[in-house]
Amino acid sequence: MTLSFRSDVFADAAEIRRKVFMEEQGFQNEFDAVDEDPRTIHLTAYDEGELVGCARIFPSDMEPGLETAPGRWVFGRLAVLPSRRGKGMGSRILAEAEQLARQSGAAEMHLHAQCYAQPLYAKAGYVAYGPVEFDEHVEHQWMEKRLST
C-alpha cells in the first residue's frame, strides 16, 4: 500500500462523501457552506493512484455552535471506501490532516465523531466531551485533542 495525499481536489472528496455518507449511510445533508469556504482544506487519499478516502479541516469560527479560539480547528467528513477499510487508512488520513492543520496554525483539533467511530479517534489521542446528539439519524459526540508542535 502506497498512500499519497492531495489537498486541492474537492471533486474527489465529494465523490467519496457521496458514496459513503449519502449512498451507504443515508445522510441527506452532506454538503454545506464550509465546503465552499476557501479556508477549508479538503484532503483526499490515494492508494497507488486510486482514490480511497477523504476528510476536511477548517478553522473553528466556521463551525456553528463551536466556541471559537485562536488555533482551534475542526476535523470532519473522514470517509474511506468500504473495500479499503480495516487497513489503517482512516488513521493515516487523520494524521495527515493534523499535520496540515498544524502547518496552518492549529494548536488543537475538534471533531464531531459518529459514536461507533470514537475508538479510532481515541486511539489517536482524542477525548470525548459534551452530550451525545443526533446528526440526522446517527449519534455523534464532540472530541478534542491538543496538537503537539
Task: Give an overview in words.
This protein is α+β, with helices and mostly antiparallel strands and 149 residues long. The chain has a single domain (3-107), classed as Gcn5-related N-acetyltransferase (GNAT) (Aminopeptidase, 3-Layer(aba) Sandwich), CATH 3.40.630. The chain is built from four helices and seven strands. A seven-stranded mixed β-sheet has the order 1-2-3-4-5-7-6, sandwiched between helices. The chain is globular. The two termini are 28 Å apart. The relative contact order is 0.16. The mean pLDDT is 95.
Task: Name a few traits of the molecule.
149 residues; alpha+beta; Aminopeptidase; 7-stranded mixed sheet
CATH superfamily: Gcn5-related N-acetyltransferase (GNAT)
Number of domains: 1
Sheet-strand content, in percent, reads: 35-45%
Measured between the Cα atoms of the first and last residue, the distance is 28 Å
Per the principal axes of the C-alpha atoms, what is the gross shape? globular
Q: How would you characterize the largest beta sheet?
A: 7 strands, mixed
Q: In CATH terms, what is the fold-level topology?
A: Aminopeptidase
Helix content: 25-40%
- Provide the gyration radius in Å: 14 Å
Mean pLDDT: 95
Organism: Parvibacter caecicola
GO molecular function: acyltransferase activity, transferring groups other than amino-acyl groups
Protein name: GNAT family N-acetyltransferase
InterPro entries: Acyl_CoA_acyltransferase, Bact_Acetyltransf, GNAT_dom
